[in-house]
């Protein structure tokens, strides 16, 4: 039992027009499916609040340290399951569920503008899309400068890049909760495979911002 891989996966609570947040529904479906015998999977629902994220995330990265922390969020603009390559430090002007935003409009004072995941999301995307899952994945370099991006950057900072962020569409647009759960399962299993093959693999940010997202 001691050599199980610890993986934490989070979804977000409802906010704005998302009375049901498909990210948490998908994470609950993933919990039902599991990640196999070798993985000790923990799931958490995260508030859509900057200050709550700042207090919660360090506890996720405490010992025993997870091999991977994956955050899942909803994007009203997404039509695919979208793997985010990097998180951004600045530009947080949108108010959260407590009508708050950071006075500095950034995650970490004096932190780098952009932090990359150690995972090559293009490789994860290709492997899952080639597997005939029936759910389409894509890759983005702009997680949207709201709680999704804020959470991702904070987690990348705390975990030295051993984090991932996945945007999912709202339920039924076009995927069911079961589809989203299977897509999360397949993507995270590929991420774990990549980490095992090349635990030091690192990518550098090229500051392309091609996709805009809600959360």
Brief sketch in words of this structure:
This protein is an alpha/beta fold and 215 residues long.
Q: Characteristics of this structure?
A:
215 residues; 30% helix; six-stranded mixed beta sheet; two-stranded antiparallel sheet; 5 helices; disordered C terminus
Tell me the layout of helices and strands.
Elements (H helix, E strand, L loop, with lengths): L4 E8 L9 H12 L5 E8 L3 H11 L7 E7 L6 E4 L1 E3 L25 E3 L4 H9 L7 E4 L6 H12 L4 E6 L8 H21 L18
Parallel strand pairs: 1-2, 1-3, 3-8, 4-7
Antiparallel strand pairs: 4-8, 5-6
Helix pairs in contact: 1-5, 2-4, 3-5
Task: Please give a structural write-up.
There is one protein chain. The protein is an alpha/beta fold. Mean pLDDT is 92; it is low at 201-214. It has five helices and eight strands, in the order βαβαββββαβαβα. It has helices at 22-33, 50-60, 121-129, 147-158, 177-197, and strands at residues 5-12, 39-46, 68-74, 81-84, 86-88, 114-116, 137-140, 163-168. The N and C termini lie far apart (36 Å). Helix 1 (22-33) crosses helix 5, helix 2 packs parallel to helix 4 and helix 3 packs across helix 5. It is 30% helix and 20% strand. Strands 2-1-3-8-4-7 form a six-stranded mixed β-sheet, sandwiched between helices. Strands 5-6 form a two-stranded antiparallel sheet.
